[in-house]
Amino acid sequence: MTDVSSEIIFHAYPQSPVAEKVRVAFGIKGLAWRSVEIPRLPPKPMLTALTGGYRRTPVMQIGADIYCDSQCIIRELERRYPSPTFMPTSEFGLMWCLSRWTDGALFDQTVRHILGSAGDKLDKDFAEDRGRLYLGENWAEALKQAHADLPHLVAQFRAPLSWLNAQMADGRAFLLGSQPAAIDAQIYFVVWFLRGRWADGPAFLSAFPELMRWEENVRAIGHGSSSALTPEEAIIIARDLEPIAQTGVAPHEPQGLEVGMPVSVSPDVNGGEQPVTGTVRFANADTIVIDRHTDEVGNVCVHFPRAGYRVEVL
Q1: Which residues share a beta bridge with 35?
Q2: What is the domain extent for residue 167?
Q3: CA separation (Å) from 223 to 20, 27, 37, 200, 309?
Q4: Which residues is 291 bridged to in the sheet?
Q5: How far apart are CA 229 and CA 182, in angstroms?
Q6: 112, 209: one domain
Q7: Which of 195, 221, 247 finishes a domain?
Q8: Does residue 260 share a domain with residue 155?
Q9: Does some domain include residue 53?
Q10: Considering the domain boundaries, does residue 1 fall inside one?
């Protein structure tokens, strides 16, 4: 009989590029996971009941611990399932530093590229939601600019893809050698997004044969094994269990956080998103964990990265 307290529950939708990053991570570790499909657009009431308002994709749930952002998800998967490792070389610190570029500037550029290339063909509701999320309050003007700047955006992609192509030119299977690493998933999702959502993506990528070989190697890893779970079942699992996150604050805390202190957490961009409020349970350089309670989901811990997120003391 399956122990639901340790099951990986993944809240996402199939078209999400960031979810694809985590699905590849599941594949690298050969994990079984439960799939809860969420709406592409808000409202997402079942998801936000668990997260306290965080609406981005994906979210991972294990029991009553809720992990927001792929940074948190990948770090927790490595902690719980250390073999095979996401960090097969000693340069794990550099891999995390590089991931801030892939998840930040590179992904933001890809979003502008994809939205700009779609132009007037983009669904209005989707354009408004993602435009506001990634392009800011003046998203409509930024979207027009992205469409006008498409040749420039294409040119900007040539350099990083040529670097990756050169990295693979010695015949290695993956970016760091013979074994896949987190950085393979953290770069692959951008290439997957570009190929699948830009009409000219396949032709553009064909100029990088070594990169295409790597892309096939990553695709062949698969996504582990998944089975469906309903949002209602996921909420029941959270409500029936207690979170197991550790408690404490690491030394040299720059914001003076203490256990039990009321805080809000939100992405460190002006995307018009609802902050998540709760009390500090754990904080260190990588992670902030807050305790929350509602009648619907009971006691939960919501985990966020520190990098890329703003913590405000209430």
Answers
A1: 10, 228
A2: 92-221
A3: 9, 4, 15, 26, 28
A4: 279, 301
A5: 26
A6: yes
A7: 221
A8: no
A9: yes
A10: no
The structure's pTM equals 0.96
Length of the chain equals 314
**Are 100 and 189 part of one and the same domain?**
yes
214 and 295 housed in the same domain: no
Angle between helices 70-80 and 17-29 (to 10 degrees): 10
Are 96 and 216 members of one domain?
yes
Distance of CA 90 to the CA centre of its chain: 24
Residue 308 inside a domain? The answer is yes
CA distances to 244, 247, 276 from 290, rounded to whole Å, are: 12, 10, 9
- Do 177 and 107 share a structural domain? yes
**Weakest mean pLDDT among 104-108, 121-125, 305-309:** 121-125
Are the C-beta atoms of residues 73 and 82 closer than 8 Å to each other? Answer: no
Q: Give residue-wise pLDDT tens across range 263-289.
A: 999 999 888 899 999 999 999 999 999
**φ/ψ (deg, to 5) at 78:** -65, -35
- Cα separation, 189 vs 11, in Å, equals 17
List pLDDT tens digits, range 80-121. 999 999 999 999 999 999 999 999 999 999 998 898 888 777
- The residue type at 7: E
Contact 295, 83 (CB under 8 A): no
Report the CATH number that the domain containing residue 267 is assigned in CATH: 3.40.30.110
Residues 78 and 28 reside in one and the same domain: yes
Domain boundary among 161, 192, 221: 221
Q: Cα-flanking dihedrals φ and ψ of residue 237, to 5°? A: -60, -45
Return the SS3 of 255.
coil
Distance CA 98, CA 101 (A): 5
Are 231 and 166 members of one domain? no
Residues 219/20, Cβ–Cβ less than 8 Å? no
Which pLDDT tens digit goes with each residue over 221-264?
999 999 999 999 999 999 999 999 999 999 999 999 999 999 99
Which pLDDT tens digit goes with each residue over 186-216? 999 999 999 999 999 999 999 999 999 999 9
Structural domain count of the chain:
2
Q: What is the model's pLDDT at position 194?
A: 95
